[in-house]
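Notes from hallway chat w/ T.B., transcribed later so I don't forget. T.B. wanted the structure written out for a chain they're using in a teaching module, and asked if we could keep both sequence and structure tokens in one place. Agreed to drop them here.
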Amino acid sequence: MYTYFFVLAALFYAVCACLPSKNRMAISIGTLLGLLLHGAALWVDVIAPHSLRMGFAIMLSGILWISVAAYWLENRNFTLDGLRILVLPCAAVGVLLPTIFPGSVIPLDDKSALFPWHIAIAMLAYSTLTIAAFHAVLMALQESKLHTRLGTQKPGLFALAIDRLPALLTMEKLLFRLIGLGFFLLTLTVLSGVVFSEELFGQAFKWEHKTIFTMLSWVLFGVLLAGRKWRGWRGKTALSFTLTGFTTLLLAYVGSRFVFEVVLHRSIA
């Protein structure tokens, strides 16, 4: 039954992504319905007695679910049509991935009670920095549009959405608010993984690909926030750090799980 929920959520996201921005109420209600269906399907798919189903597709779907929720909440205070046109199509695809790549079941009997919390905080960190990456893309397009003359060509839907975004300074404030929150959550993820590795995963801490990529992403976002505070970094420097840090973080878990599950056909915890 939950497979139908995934499909219906994808349809709601796709329709809401295509609706003209003047249908603000319909977009808001449709997105909320998609969110509820998506969340219900993930809950049924992931949560089982004494176990969790995990995999790159489930993690990516969960990240996009929280990202859509962040967009929906932000859009109540600001007009973020550009973000809608970026986030919802990605979510429409991502919501269907667990039906194709189901992942593997991880028993919780030998795991600490902190393990689900570690996963939840990690997903929140990923999601917050994902929506920050979407913001960075919009800001790059917005800044580029300021320096581009459109002439007499009629602007398309996306160009109109970019025009309706808040001012660049407001977008920048939102971006660094998201990065600050994401960095805090990522710090909790890193600390819990390093300090409580044996309790969480049943093994002593060790350096591996996902650990290295996560730490590198954490350093990049930390340097960006320090540069913002002490050197006033903004503009292209901030956007480059944001997108590089996000790409590195994406490779840490989702990328490595994709290689193991899809390319190597191996199941990992």
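Follow-up for T.B.: The longest strand covers residues 51-54. Might be a good example for the class.
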